[in-house]
Here is the input.
Amino acid sequence: MSAPILEVSGLGKRFGGFVALENIDLKVAPGERLGLIGPNGSGKSTLVNCICGTLINDTGTVQFNDRDLKGLITHERTRLGMARSFQLPRPFFSMTIADNIRVPLLYTLNAHRSEEQIAARCNELLGLVGLAGKATQFPRDLTQVDMRKLELARAMAVEPKLLIADEAMAGLSGSEVTDIVNLLITLNERGITVILIEHIMSAVMQFSQRLVVLVSGKKIADGAPDIVIRDPEVERAYLGQ
Amino acid sequence: MRTMSTWMFALVACVVAAAVFFFVPFIGKILGWGDYIYIASYTVLQYVVLATAWNILGGYTGYVNFGSAAFFAVGTYTTVFFHKLYPLPIPILVVLAAVVGGLIGLGMGYLTLRLRGAFFSIATLAMAVVLQTLIVNWDFVGGSRGAYVIRPASIVLFDSYIQYLFVIMLALVVIAVTVARTIERSALGYGFAAIRDDELAAEASGVPTLKLKLIATALSGAFMGMAGAPFPYFIGFLQPSGVFGLEYAVNSIAMPIIGGTATWIGPLVGAILLGTLQQVATVTISSAVNVLMVGLLLVFFVIVAPNGLVGVVQNLFRKKPGAPS
Ligand SMILES: Nc1ncnc2c1ncn2[C@@H]1O[C@H](COP(=O)(O)OP(=O)(O)OP(=O)(O)O)[C@@H](O)[C@H]1O
Ligand SMILES: [Mg+2]
Here is the structure.
C-alpha cells in the first residue's frame, strides 16, 4: 500500500467507564473506497468523531497525510482536507440550500475566491448532487434523500481529500440508495478517498474495495469485502445481533 | 437584488441621518418640546446603537447577553475616568470606550463562550454584577455616590451642547448600522449564522467557531461601550445603579427581538419604535411604565411572532401558498 492518507494507531475512547473504542488500528490509502460496518453501538460514529476532532481520543494517534492531528480542532482538520457528513443531517436551518454550501466555500480554501467563483462552485456542487433546482429553498423543505445530498454537497465544498460519509443512506429507498452510492463512486473517481459507514449491505458491497468491521469497539476484520463477510467471526457478530 | 455596496449604504445612511438632523427640530416645534426633542431623540438613538450592538452577538451568533447594561456602563465610566484625569473631546472618548468595551467583551467571551444557551446568559449576568461591584467600590470614579460630569456651556458649530450630543449619537447609529449590515453580507456573517444554527456542523465546514464568537463578543462590547461614552455629558450626574440598570439590559434584548434579530433592520426598527413609545410614555404617563411595557411586548413577540416585526412583514409579502416555488 502506498503511504496512507489516514493512519489511525492504537486509538482508544471511553465514555466514563464504558469503553467505546479499544486499540483501533486503521490505514486508508489515497484514492481508496473503504466500507466501515458494524452492529449498532459498535463505535463507528465515535471513531469518525475522533478522526475529525469532534471528540478527543484518550489513547492512540490519528495521522492525516503523515501529519499528527493531536491538538488540532475540527475546523483545522477540515481545512487540511478532511470532510464528514453527519449520521443525522445537520444543515444550517436558517440558510438557503445555496448558502449552506457557501459557508464551507467561504471558510476553507486559503486562496481567496471571488464572489463569481463562489457562486459558480456552489452551482457546480448543487448540480453534482442534483439539488441545483432547489438552491433558494430552505432545508426544512427538503425530503430525506435531498437532505442527505445536501449533507454530502456541503462536505464536498471543503474540497476534501478524504470524505467520511456516516450512514449517508439510512432511511432511503432502494433507488435513492443507488443514487447516493453512484454519487460517492463519482466523487471517488475524481480522486477523493471515501470512507463509507453503512448498514445497507448491498450498498456497502457495491461501493467498497475494502471492508473493515467494528464490533463492541474493536476491529475484528479488515480486508477484501467478499472474504470479510464470509469470516466466521463477522458472521457471528451479525447473527448475534 | 440587494447588492448595494457598503460605501453606497454608508452614504445613504448619512443622507438619512442628515434628514433626521434637519427634521427633528421641526417635530420639537410642533410638539412644543423645544430642546427636549434632542433629549428624547438622543435616548432613542442610543437604544438603536445598543440594540444593534446586542444583535451582533445575540442575533447573529445566537448567544444571548444579559449583561448589556454593564458594557454600556463601562463606556460611561471610561468617560468619567478620563474626565477626572484630563477632559478629552467626546469623539476620542467614544474611541476609548470602544476599546475598553471591546476588551471586556473579549475577556467575557474568553471566559464564558465554552458555555452554551442559558449558561452563557447567566454568566453574562454574573459578569455584570462583578463589574458593577468593582465600579461601586472604585472611589476615583465616584464609587456608589456617583460622579458629576459638568458639560461645557457651549460648543463651536452647534446651537447647544445637547444638539452636539445628539449629532454624535446620530453618527454612532450610522457607524453601528453600517457595520452590522456589512457583517451580515460578509464571510463573517455567514460564519456567525452557521454558529447560530449548528456549531458542530459549522466546525465541520471549516468555521473557526471560537475565534468568530470572540470577534462577536468584542464587536458587540465595543459598540455598547461607544453608546455609553457620551452619556455622562448627557446626564450630568452618573450613578452606578442608573447605568447598570435593568432598563438597559432589558431594552437591548427586547428591541432586537421585537424588531427581528436576523438582519440589521430589526434592531433599528425595534429600537426606534420602542424607544419612541417609551419617550412618549415618559412624557404622558411616567417613566415607571417603560420597563413594564417593554416586558409585556417582549413576551407577546416571543410567543406570537418570534421573528419580530421584520418577520411579520416578510410573511405578508411572501408568496401565497400554492404559488409555484
Ligand atoms: N457522547 C457519548 N457519551 C456516552 N456514550 C456515548 C457517546 N457517544 C456514543 N456513546 C456510546 O458509545 C457506543 C458507540 O456509539 P457509536 O455512535 O459510535 O455507535 P455506531 O457504531 O455509530 O452505532 P450506529 O450504527 O447506531 O450509528 C454506544 O454504546 C453509544 O451509546
Ligand atoms: Mg453511528
Q: What stands out?
A: Residues A 15, 20, 38, 40-46, 87 surround adenosine-5'-triphosphate (ligand 1) (CB under 6 Å). Chain B touches chain A through 21 residues (CB under 8 Å). Chain B has 15 helices and two strands.
